Amino acid sequence: QLGTGAIEIKSGYGLSLEGELKMLRVIKRLKDLNWIPVKSTFLGAHAVPKQFKDNKKGYIDHIINDMLPAITKEKLADFIDVFCEKGVFSVEETRQILSAAKKYRFKLKLHAEQYNNLGSAELAASLDAVSADHLDNISEQGINALAASGVVAVLLPGVPFYLMEEKYAPARKMIDAGCAVAIASDFNPG
Q1: How does pLDDT run across 57-103, given as a tens digit for each residue?
Q2: CA–CA separation, 21 and 189 (whole Å)
């Protein structure tokens, strides 16, 4: 009624095979209602769960070897997303997860440059991702890479506003550079 034409729902709060499957199954049930177009995104690489605190490689292997095949088998997700950020997943870890997901024919997304500029916008461009989200700390090189590749820059201005941060994604620079820009709410339990 307020103009929403479609929604994307992401998992990423279970951080276990069972937790992620449960969320994705609920999303599938909502999708099957056909009341509004719904896209589902697997965001198991949203954080490293406590049980893998000292074994991030083990969690990445769990995502690649257990979660991706199970989600693919049940056809539960349209996209995969990775939170590429200091203290979460590095650019190389993100590349590893997304490259494995490509083999399962997932469409790719990244949480990119939210708090730090790591070059994840450039990674999104190099992997032909559908979108790079947040981008509050994107560089000129990142903007140019997104513009040249056609990766959609999804801006979430409600996040820095809610967190009372002063830095927002440079939307005007992106538009002027020729980036495709979208706005999203990032309505989440975090």
Answers
A1: 999 999 999 999 999 999 999 999 999 999 999 999 999 999 999 99
A2: 18
The answer to pTM > 0.85 is yes
Q: Name the pairing type of β-strands 152-155 and 131-134.
A: parallel
Coil, strand, or helix at residue 108? strand
Closest CA to 125 of 171, 178, 72: 178
> Which residue type occupies 141?
Q
CA distance 159 to 187: 9
Provide the terminal-to-terminal Cα distance of the chain, rounded to the nearest Å. 26
Handedness of CA 112, 125, 95, 73 (dihedral sign): positive
Whether 88 and 112 have beta carbons less than 8 Å apart is answered as no
Give dist(CA 28, CA 92) in Å, integer: 31
In the chain, DSSP finds a helix count (H) and a strand count (E) of 8, 7
Contacts of 186 (CB under 8 A, 6+ apart): 156, 158, 159
**CA 40 to each of CA 27, 55, 127: distance values in angstroms, whole numbers, following the listed order:** 7, 28, 20
Q: What one-letter code names the amino acid at 181?
A: V
Encoded tokens for 105: 């024919």
